[in-house]
Amino acid sequence: MLCLAGFTQSFAQISVSITIGDASGIRISKHIYGHFAEHLGRCIYDGFYRNGKIRMDVVAALKKIKVPVLRWPGGCFADQYHWTDGIGPKDKRPSRVNTNWGMVVEDNSFGTDEFLQLCQLIGCSPYMAANLGSGTPEEMQHWLEYLNYKGSTTLTGQRAANGHANPYNISFWAVGNESWGCGGNMTPEFYTGQYKRYASFCVDFPGSKLKKIASGGYGDQYNWTETIMKNIPLDQLWGISVHYYVFPGGWEHKGSATTFNEAAYFTSLKKALYLGEILDRHSAVMDKYDAAGKVALVIDEWGIWTDVEPGSDPDFLYQQNSLRDALIAASSLNIFNNHAGRVKMANLAQTVNVLQALILTKGDKMLLTPTYHVFDMFKVHQDAKLVPLKIETSYFKNGTDSLPALNASASEDSGGVMHISLVNLDPGKAITVRLKDIMNKYKTVSGEILTSANFTDVNSFENPGQVVPVTFMGVRKVVGECAVVLPPRSVVVLELKQQ
After folding, report:
1. Which of 178, 180, 230, 270 has the most CB atoms less than 10 A away?
2. Are 315 and 443 in contact (CB under 8 A)?
3. Element (H, E) at 174
4. Looking at 38, 114, 145, 301, which residue is catalytic?
């Protein structure tokens, strides 16, 4: 990033202000910037794994954005997955039918050891979802013994024979997935009984303290959070998961990823911003039972879900990724950052070739989506101290409805450098943001911007650089303040230094 001087603008603007507080004692967990990989469509096979090998181009892209945690093997697939199918010599692994995603044959060539090798290459923590729906407590305990026990047993001998004599020391461990739906169609009362049963066999082997995560509700199913917090002792929980997707046109007719008008754009953003209320209300329920905030809220599936790309398998959930989706990602990450006191992990769905992917592949080719670039720009917030903001905003109107046009979050890293991420959702109006009194403390301001001519713009294999970050030139200093001109439909991340 370069230190920026003046900026000349040539379009009408709305003027608002942000007052920046002092760094808080709350850290923005790096795990908020996590991702999700399921045996679904081309996420694993042809995405992470091709011709029997891990794709190193994908690994390099994920290392660059400092992916902190990766969730696997699902998703709905997790509750039909039996881990012993995916270990040992590949020519002896059984083939199974993937009944959740297209009735395709799963050859199990990518299993536990391959996944953990992938995590090692990326440099991220594994987050594993265990089979509560169709598995047994014994199966779950045996998997953990294979993963985490140091001593000599039949299972650890198998691990050694499979190339890993030392334990993996897995920490993040989900006890089931979407137990309200594909994970068993359970009531929250029934699930909490099952959780306590299964979790009692999730052993903390020496050197491997588990962070057990309960399967919570979808979106505004606050009764799931209430029942879990009421019925499960807090010392048996590290976190509770919540899932939330943006369906632009609803579940039945989600809408195109690339062809949509301003009304559909508005609706998508409105649904994305509803995430803030969802987190507020789940947090309020948790506060009743856990005032100290020891139990984490984990948003381990989130993102926009549109219709699949024309001509692709409808069960593979392959969708393009537009500037709109990048704005949704940036707004969601701002929401997570500002809820960092309770939200300790989030996992975008999904990393490669599925839903709101970071990466799309086509044979040996790979491209980075606009959402990928948001994660690259926002990685500066990982493990930094949350800085509270008081935001004055304008509104983006659609008919009689409206939504806040501006959202933001800020953090201060261990070197005293502040980063402010700003999102202008208005498709047609620039916003001038006055950062009050900021230049009394900071001497230089620099930044990056992600935008494009249309909110439908995408990166394609023919034009992979359509939507990419560039140096931001929209900053000027004004008597101790900093004026930032955000173009329409843009994401900006500023870096402020004291020297």
Report:
1. 178
2. no
3. strand 172-175
4. 301
Beta-strand pair 481-486/430-435: antiparallel
- pLDDT at position 1 over 60: no
> Can you spell out the DSSP letters for 113-162?
HHHHHHHHHHT-EEEEEE--SS--HHHHHHHHHHHH--S--HHHHHHHHT
252 catalytic, yes or no? no
Beta strands in 338-453 (DSSP E): 343-349, 359-362, 365-368, 385-387, 389-391, 395-398, 401-404, 406-412, 418-424, 430-435, 444-450
Instruction: Label the pairing between strands 69-72 and 34-36.
Output: parallel
Whole-number Å distance between alpha carbons of 340 and 127:
19
Q: Please, which residues have CB within 8 angstroms of residue 463's CB and are 6 or more apart in sequence?
A: none
Nearest to 282 by CA among 329, 246, 233, 336: 336
Residue among 152, 142, 60, 148 nearest 366 (CA) = 60
Taking the model in full, what pTM does it have? 0.95
- Contact partners, residue 115, CB within 8 Å, separation at least 6: 37, 72, 73, 126
Amino acid, single-letter form, for residue 427: P
Q: Active site includes 301?
A: yes
Confidence class for position 391, pLDDT limits 50, 70, 90: very high
Which residue of the set 106, 114, 145, 178 is catalytic?
178
3-state DSSP assignment of residue 325: helix
Tell me which amino acid residue 71 is.
Answer: R
Q: What is the helix, strand, coil percentage profile of the chain, to 5? A: 30, 30, 45
Q: What confidence tens digit (pLDDT) does each residue in 130-160 have?
A: 999 999 999 999 999 999 999 999 999 999 9
Print burial letters for 328-340: b (CB count within 10 Å at least 16), e (below 16). bbbbbbbbbbbbb
Distance CA 303, CA 332 (A): 8
Query: In angstroms, rounded to a whole number, what is the distance separating the alpha carbons of residues 442 and 20?
Result: 12
pLDDT tens readout for residues 32-65: 999 999 999 999 999 999 999 999 999 999 999 9
| Beta carbons within 10 angstroms of residue 122's beta carbon | 25
User: Is residue 348 a contact partner of residue 304, using CB atoms and an 8 Å limit?
Assistant: no
Band of pLDDT at residue 12, cut at 50, 70 and 90:
low
